[in-house]
Design brief:
Protein name: PTS EIIA type-4 domain-containing protein
Keywords: Transferase
Number of domains: 1
CATH topology: Rossmann fold
Number of strands: 4
InterPro entries: Bacterial_PTS_sugar_comp (IPR051471), PTS_EIIA_man-typ (IPR004701), PTS_EIIA_man-typ_sf (IPR036662)
Domain PTS EIIA type-4: 1-123
Pfam families: EIIA-man
Structural class: alpha/beta
Number of helices: 6
CATH class: Alpha Beta
Strand content: 15-25%
Length: 144
């Protein structure tokens, strides 16, 4: 079994979870944690740490954070001293959806690599010039 945490500065994590619920319905075993002004990132890590203690070693924890090297990510990374904890930074909706929906059938590391690639592929630069170039080279077909 896996449990998922989305952790961010502000409400980004809650927004991603809300979007997931809209797209695929309620997702089990996933929670959003927000670092609000005046709070400390270690308080968020303590919530996850308590869940790890209560759940036991057979449960895998996957924690998605917003910014690599940020305070939330740094606090969550300390939890990797547990062998059943993985932290993935740079979360976006595509990355989290890919991991949660298809990653449950894969080992964590393989699922993480696939999800990170999906997240990266979902980032596309587009403006009128680029759009016109793509239409010329692809015709009226799909431009991505």
């Amino acid at each position: 079994m896996r449990k998922y945490y989305l952790a961010s500065h502000g409400e980004l994590a809650a927004g991603i979870l809300s979007s997931m619920n809209l797209i695929v319905g309620e997702v089990a075993n996933i929670k959003a944690l927000a670092l609000e002004k005046g709070n400390h990132p270690d308080n968020l890590a303590d919530i996850v740490r308590d869940d790890i203690r209560k759940s036991g070693e057979e449960v895998e924890f996957v924690i998605f954070t917003d910014i690599a090297g940020g305070s939330v990510n740094t606090a969550m990374t300390k939890l990797c001293s547990n062998e059943n904890v993985t932290v993935i930074s740079g979360m976006n909706l595509g990355l989290v959806l890919e991991f949660v929906l298809s990653g449950c059938y894969l080992p964590v590391e393989e699922a993480a690599i696939n999800a990170i690639n999906t997240g990266k592929e979902g980032m596309v630069f587009l403006n009128k010039k680029k759009l016109d170039e793509n239409i010329k080279s692809e015709g009226e077909e799909e431009i991505w």
